[in-house]
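Re-running the complex after MR caught last week's input typo. The corrected sequence lines follow. Everything else is unchanged.
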Amino acid sequence: MAALKRVVIVGGGISGLSAAFALLEQAGSRDESVQCTVVEGQEYFGGKIVTNRRDGLVTEGGPDSFLTTKPSALALCEKLGLTSQLINTNKEHAQTFTYSKGRLREFPQGLISMVPTKLGPLFHSGVISWAGIVRMGADWIIPARARTNAEETLTEFFSRRLGSEAFDHLIEPLVSGIYAGDANELSVDATFPHLVELERKHGSLIKGALAMQRARSSHRPDATARTLFTTLQGGLGDLITSLTDRLSCAGVSLRRGADVRVVQSSGSHTDPPFRVELEGGERLDAEAVVLATPAYVSAGFLRSFDHEAATALDGIPYASTMTVSMVFPEPEVRSRLRGYGFVVPRVENRSLIAATWSSMKWAGRAPSGQCLIRCYLGGRGREHLLDLEDAELMERACRELESMVGIQPPPLHVEVYRWPRAMPQYTRGHRERVQRIRERVALHPGLYVTGAAYDGIGIPDCIRDAENTSAKLSAYLWE
Ligand SMILES: Cc1cc2nc3c(=O)[nH]c(=O)nc-3n(C[C@H](O)[C@H](O)[C@H](O)COP(=O)(O)OP(=O)(O)OC[C@H]3O[C@@H](n4cnc5c(N)ncnc54)[C@H](O)[C@@H]3O)c2cc1C
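Corrected-run output:
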């Protein structure tokens, strides 16, 4: 009987865990077995996904929801039997605000894929001037850019099409909320390729967005449809618990608190091709290794046997962020809170990227009589905030909430999460960099990289990339 194939997955975030889950599915469908180990350096699985539950509060240290327009996360929840636990955003508060010109203003309705399409709401919001609105309208007549031209940053792309005022006040704060990045560095081709395609196909972003809307509205609306974002009733941590339970029942060895120090490639098919060395000296031999770690960690592993791959991986910069969740007495703050919260354009020069009224956006986040608010701070160029003590960070968040929203009372409870080098930045040249990384890694049969650094940073993107990786891995092991 052939010996069981050994696979080591380094990193137990959503990418590593879903890669292990997909590998088991692949093995099952091929009637094969595999000896799989997931090695996680922290004492807990989930990576950026951290849910904390105490005294009726459900707080999220990292992500708080995922997009429903990308199917991978919904499909994984279905496989794990979690579909009935998914909750929609509270429709009664479905409004978002932006802090602009000294006060909160409602984000104009009619944004389709970030592109403004309705004149009335834009005008009433007061977010951009008449001159800015007229400039935006020029998008109808500005010719599309030739495919052969050099890659643009987000600032260049949106300012060229819609004008710099619309970009600074409407689009940049949305982009910052996703990437915590600097739009002067981020590549439009790598972050929003569908918008580049809209321009090419329709000659205008607004025309393209309206065509997208017409195509969508030709489908009959489904009363049970999910909102744009969804989460789990008990928090996203339940996705991780469910995954680890399934993996452990299926015999996957889940090692936590086990920092990987070295990954060695023997470069031969006879020896075990890979050796993974843990802190403390323990060694795991494997026929295949999946690196589901941040790009700069994977670079460290590869440096000893593929310097070029390591250099390309190191070329992916990261931004640091922080979340400060605070609980306030409801009677004292409720009248100040409208919608789901607000975003802050970079031109406003604040520490906050966004604030979410979590207990208004989602049901069951705080006990009655309390409001849970989550502030998102930091991002590219504001990394110095990471050096502040927790109390200083809280104070900074409170000061900004007071000046922007008028919230005054001291919070009843505070949780601070720091995320150093957490958000990969898809800067100009990202797609070529990723192609180079994949080409180099392919020179080492049995070695794979997956995670937020490559083809999308959202949870559904990570799951999709992990599933694709496991499909390639199983073809390597069993074909
Ligand atoms: C504050 C914040 C808010 C976010 N909000 C959202 C959101 O609302 N929706 C959304 O879709 N996405 C959101 N994201 C992005 C999303 O959460 C991440 O991109 C995704 O969770 C990354 O998963 P991953 O498994 O690729 O990486 P990680 O979660 O970083 O997992 C990598 C794992 O590798 C481990 N590791 C590292 N080095 C070693 C080593 N030497 N040995 C062993 N293990 C190691 C780490 O401990 C970690 O557990 C957010 C991210 C942050 C930081």
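None of the earlier attempt is carried over here. The pocket of flavin-adenine dinucleotide is lined by residues 10-16, 39-42, 47-49, 62-66, 259-260, 292-294, 297, 321, 323, 419, 422-423, 451-452, 457-459, 462 (CB under 6 Å). The radius of gyration is 23 Å.
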